[in-house]
Protein: SNO glutamine amidotransferase family protein
Organism: Alkalibacterium gilvum
Amino acid sequence: MEVERNGFGRQVQSFETSIKFKGVDQEVEAVFIRALYIKSVGPGVKTLACVDNKIVAAGQDNILVTAFHSELTY
């Protein structure tokens, strides 16, 4: 996996939004604070959510990675 650090901007560009998350029936609240985004994933890695065509969640087997602070909303 390759990421872009501060991909959505610096702290003053932090934001909260609802995203469609593959495998979840309702939209997920996501808080992005100096957030990275995932530029690319390797073989076998599934893209699970995107914002502005940027990958913000991915998974493989029992591993889940997110670019947002899910602990701030749930």
